[in-house]
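step: validate -> pass
step: tokenize input -> pass
step: predict -> running
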Amino acid sequence: MGADAVELLVPGTDGQTRTVRVTSPDRVYFPEAGLTKLDLAHYYQSVGEPITRALRTRPCMLHRFPKGTTEKKVHQKKLPAGAPDWIETVDVYFPRYSRTVHELCVTEPAAVLWAVQMATVEFHPWNSRRAGTVPPSPGIEFPDEWRIDLDPMPDCDFPKVRRTTHIVHEVLDELGITGYPKTSGGHGLHVYVRIEPEWGFADVRRAAHAFGAEVARRSAGEATVTWWRKDRDPSSVFVDFNQNARDHTMAAAYSVRATPRATVSTPIRWDEIDDVEPDDFTVATVPDRLASLGDLHERIDDVAHRLDTLLEWDDRDTLDNR
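step: predict -> pass
step: emit ->
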């Protein structure tokens, strides 16, 4: 019989070290890949710095699997009970329920490991940060990240996703905007862009729609921003602009996904688009890739871009459709 618990030493803030206790370390979380809870914890320990960068001071929804990924998933917005006093949170108000929830707000790698102890497999952060953080933020109602989600419909092959991603890169270059691509950990690709936190969710969503419409126009019918799923070509790539709406979240860079192979949402280079195979990036392979290439999203906070041109495009498209 294995150990009842394992203690991991994890870097904390100001040079100190946290001790995170992982209980039931031998519980199998990924039967096909043969990975246990402790294997998952060791993975997140190995990517502690870059995933903390991806999550830093953002409200974070947790996808928890207390009995492993083949069993029931828990979508956890409220911080799980029993958090140590060094775990930080951010207050998020949900108008639909007229309630405020304390969500996890990662500020150090130990917070990631604590969440893993609480059966978290996937980390899904908001595209905004709590107020007064570094980089500076006016608060969670003002996104600092525009997310381009290239979501293949059921009959869409991955080469079509690749071609659409090249168009995304082309349009971003024309706008003078730097995008940071990554795999989704599923069948799609994501591109993240840092933006000035001057606009609310509705305007960021409008800008994302205008961008997606331009990508669709250049794609010869391979991409779409058609809203209703029933109206989309089942072989198309949906440029999902709605991922920029309030309280919509996506798996963070370096987040594991609850797939049989334990795939990981992994930063990639633009010149890898034509060769990348998303299933190649797993808990088993990403730590070595990170050690070899470093964090390809390390400089994502260096420049924040403006959305003025995209909002002008949206105004133009709205007039044209009247």
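step: describe -> DSSP finds seven helices and 14 strands in the chain.
step: cleanup -> pass
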